[in-house]
Design goal:
eight-stranded mixed β-sheet; 190 residues; three-stranded antiparallel β-sheet; 2 helices; Nuclear Transport Factor 2, Chain: A; alpha+beta; 2 domains
């Protein structure tokens, strides 16, 4: 049983409401339910499809450019991220720190390509979901605990990002799920 926002539904079974995914501040499923008072959102500001598409591209550009600290700024404080190489979800800023540690070493390289259209659904004036397909390649990565270098790739990946527009007009990632259909085996380097 999953309660809906606002309480009172704790004992009501999921029934025909479909899949409901709790996220900070709202519940996603067949509908979106915002808290009674969204946190300091300027109702005059609205997310556009073009802004969301640019934010997805910017995420991968920041990963490729290896700019320290920039990745962490892309997430809300209470965001949740699922990555293809982690066994469970993790807070967005923790994920950003881990990715910087893995991919931002001077000798490491990362590149990604979005291989299809970035589909965007505007859920509210300040909330949107983007979905896309992608490939990514990490080369000369380091596993400090094993003392080994390796390459890894996501050959047929899918990405879903939930963006929120904050009170300063920035699009931030509230939820991100990147997964893969076909993962190349990790290639250890000598």
């Amino acid at each position: 049983m999953i309660p809906e926002a606002g309480g009172g539904d704790e004992n009501r079974p999921l029934g025909n409401r479909g899949c409901v995914f709790p996220l900070p501040g709202f519940i996603l499923g067949f509908k979106i339910v915002l808290r009674e008072k969204p946190a300091e959102v300027d109702v005059a500001a609205k997310i556009t499809v073009e802004q969301v598409q640019a934010a997805v591209r910017r995420y991968f550009a920041v990963m490729s450019a290896k700019t320290p600290g920039e990745l962490e700024k892309m997430y809300t404080y209470d965001s949740v991220v699922f990555n293809p190489f982690t066994p469970r979800g993790e807070p967005g800023r923790v994920s950003a720190t881990r990715q910087e540690r893995e991919y931002f070493k001077p000798q490491s390289n990362y590149r990604a390509e979005i291989v299809g259209p970035i589909e965007v659904q505007i859920l509210a004036d300040n909330v949107a979901v983007a979905a896309h397909t992608m490939r990514s390649y990490g080369t000369n990565l380091e596993e400090p605990t094993l003392g080994k270098r390796f390459n890894r790739a996501v050959q047929d990946g899918r990405g879903t990002h939930v963006f929120v527009l904050d009170s300063e007009g920035r699009l931030l990632i509230a939820h991100q799920h990147i997964s893969d259909i076909c993962r190349a085996p990790i290639e250890y380097l000598k």
